[in-house]
Amino acid sequence: MAVSIAIETPLQDDVRGLIDKLNAYLLPLSPPEFQFKLTVEQMAGADTSVFVARDETGRAIGCGALRVHSAGMGEVKRMFTDPEVRGKRVGSALLEAIVGLAQERGLDVLMLETGAAADMPEAHRLYTRSGFVARGPFLDYPDSQWSAFFEKPLRQEQTA
User: pTM to 2 decimals?
Assistant: First the structure.
């Protein structure tokens, strides 16, 4: 399957549809107060770059975002792959694009918050295969049974 990945505005109907699917998927997994969602309007902010994966017909099949919090730290947000194409490395390609942009921007570390391992084993495998390691909460995320936190140091990869 041919997949293209590019930075696009999230303010498109098909990207909104992906985010709606992501939100529906997450809704039963944890209480609403432990779901840290960005809206598509927030994703359109200057601090966030949204990557959209499209199949050969141009259909949006996945998304993920890089949100820059400081000169040295970025966060992976809103990673989602349409269930129809899971297992075809679309998520890996999106994450690779996010990491690449973070490195281009000279960030030192990428962090992310995701659901607990029991609810999201595929996501945990994706992140650990991509070099992310478990860590504690960061920014203002609370420590809870509903979340898992990861980081990927970038600085040594740029100089190695």
Answer: 0.92
